[in-house]
Amino acid sequence: MAVYRRMARCAIKGPGADSMMTPWVLRLIIANVAVFLLAMSNPSFLQAFVLVPAFALTRPWTLITYMFIHGGFGHLLFNMLGLYFFGPRLEHRLGGRHFLALYFFSGIMGAILSFFFTPYSPIIGASGAIFGVFLAFARYWPREKIYIYGLLPIEARLFVGIMTALSIFSGLSGTGGGVAHFAHLGGFLGGFLYLRWMEWSSPAARFKRKAGAPSVKSGDAGRWSRIRREDLHPVNREELDRVITKLREMGPASLSNDERAFLNRFSPE
Description:
The protein is mainly α and 269 residues long. Helix 3 packs parallel to helix 5 (127-140). It starts with 11 loop residues before the first strand and ends with a helix. The protein folds into 2 domains: 12-201, Up-down Bundle (Rhomboid-like fold), CATH 1.20.1540.10; 214-266, no CATH class. It has helices at residues 23-41, 62-65, 73-94, 96-117, 127-140, 156-173, 181-201, 203-211, 220-225, 234-250, 257-266; strands at 12-13, 145-148, 152-155. Strand 2 and strand 3 form a beta hairpin. The chain is elongated.
């Protein structure tokens, strides 16, 4: 009997203050809900679009379509809540193009990793893509509080670490049947690799490889500290807080080129 991926057995609540809906998050939620309703009215619809990793080469479209199929309302609800809470701020930070690319790359990496461990188990759901969003969120806002069951606060970086450990343990031990743990791990891996590629291919990184890292000029730290936080968008305020904290704790030399460019963009001349 086919084993379908079920929702993770935890409820999460992310940051609500800056979770204003963004274009691609909204489109992805609408697409997932629409496909779910279509599948309810036509169950045979599922069979053409479910991913079986071992057959992905002969059914390549399933590497994408499996992300839009869910095994039940709870499965759909968990994934869409994760996208709703964590996606908008990340889309603001990355831009729509990079956000969408990270989402699909994470989902595809979930399918690829499943090929090596559960090649003949049918897989459905957006969890691999959503886990990539979780990892990217934790990369940019590692100390942001996530509330398990709406009550238990946990930092984003610790949440990702715990989910990674649980997925590895459950996947290798065979516990938690019906959940595609290696697709979750593939989502984390996809998010990590995409962010690394973004950093490596950024204009600042290319300049650094060609010319070396520029030195910090005298007075830069003071100029950066005069940035008016209240004039910035809430998303940029959080990034400013993170970078200024790093500057104070580790010194100007610890800042990456991207972080220096961010500060220069908003600092007074």
